[in-house]
């Protein structure tokens, strides 16, 4: 059994205090960089602006549809819509393939599971449900008090202090974790932005390697994303490890060109999964069977 011996690597940029080992189930350490508190705050503000725009549009639509209805019914619909929007926004986007809301994508961030496994729906729901307790619940309480004209100085100070404690919590732990991240076992990390190169797109000069259906059926969407991170990172040790793992599982001989092999495998796997999606089949990871 031959293990890869190359160990040259490109050191990740960014401060050493924010770099963390992120070992995938295949034994590859991607050495991810955590998102800074400022970058995460900026991403949240971008998402908040987009949600406010969406909320204004929905409010106008509800007002036009129920213009003849009672104000109480309109208010209840608005509250339900606002609750659904602020929770569904984060949950649905982070459950997607990129693991990021529009704000996080603009700021180059994404959510990952700290144990290196695929990010699960339960973890996404848990981390975002805590945001209700951390921020929106006390702020909603203050809003109701102000609307009813019954604001109390002590309760107002308590609600603001509660929100501030949770808001600044990431500044007081080394992994920049929200309480929701602690509960869900997640990190918010910087996305790898290196180029995949011309080998991964159509029109390259050299011929592509051909892979059997059995070789391509070994992995799913999660492994495809991990492979993309490895290729973007360009670290020889990670590329060698992944190439050896795939060759070993698929029974493919080593031709000495790890990057070219992974580039071709990535392109072939991507094409296979895209064809599956067109037929209504999606395979989340190597443990799941294709399903419609």
UniProtKB/TrEMBL annotation:
Presence of the UniProt keyword Ion transport in the record: no
UniProt keyword RNA-binding, yes or no: no
InterPro entries (alphabetical): RDD (IPR010432)
RDD domain residues: 35-185
Classification via Pfam families: RDD
Superkingdom assignment: Bacteria
Keywords: Membrane, Transmembrane, Transmembrane helix
Chief place where the protein resides: membrane
Bilayer-crossing regions: 41-67, 74-92, 153-172
Its membrane topology: Multi-pass membrane protein
Compartment(s): Membrane
Matching PANTHER family: SLR0254 PROTEIN
Annotated protein name in UniProt: RDD family protein
Protein's organism: Sphingomonas oligophenolica
């Amino acid at each position: 059994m031959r293990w890869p011996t190359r160990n040259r690597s490109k050191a990740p940029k960014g401060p050493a205090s924010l770099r963390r080992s992120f070992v995938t189930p295949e034994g590859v350490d991607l050495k991810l960089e955590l998102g800074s508190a400022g970058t995460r705050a900026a991403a949240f503000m971008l998402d908040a602006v987009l949600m406010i725009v969406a909320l204004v549009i929905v409010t106008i639509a509800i007002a036009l549809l129920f213009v003849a209805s009672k104000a109480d019914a309109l208010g209840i619909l608005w509250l339900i819509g606002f609750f659904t929007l602020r929770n569904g926004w984060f949950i649905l986007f982070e459950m997607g393939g990129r693991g990021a809301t529009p704000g996080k994508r603009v700021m180059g961030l994404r959510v990952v599971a700290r144990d290196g496994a695929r990010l699960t729906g339960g973890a996404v729901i848990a981390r975002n449900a805590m945001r209700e307790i951390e921020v929106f619940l006390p702020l909603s309480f203050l809003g109701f008090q102000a609307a009813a004209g019954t604001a109390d100085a002590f309760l107002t100070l308590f609600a603001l202090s509660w929100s501030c404690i949770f808001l600044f919590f990431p500044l007081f732990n080394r992994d920049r974790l929200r309480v929701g991240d602690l509960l869900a076992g997640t990190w918010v990390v910087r996305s790898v932005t290196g180029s995949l190169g011309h080998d991964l797109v159509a029109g390259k000069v050299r011929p592509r390697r051909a892979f059997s259906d059995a070789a391509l059926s070994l992995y799913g969407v999660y492994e495809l994303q991990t492979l993309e991170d490895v290729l973007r990172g360009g670290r020889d040790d990670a590329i060698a490890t992944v190439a050896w793992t795939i060759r070993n599982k698929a029974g493919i001989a080593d031709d000495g060109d790890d990057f070219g092999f992974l580039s071709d495998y990535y392109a072939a796997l991507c094409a296979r999964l895209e064809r599956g999606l067109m037929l209504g089949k999606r395979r989340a990871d190597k443990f799941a069977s294709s399903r419609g």
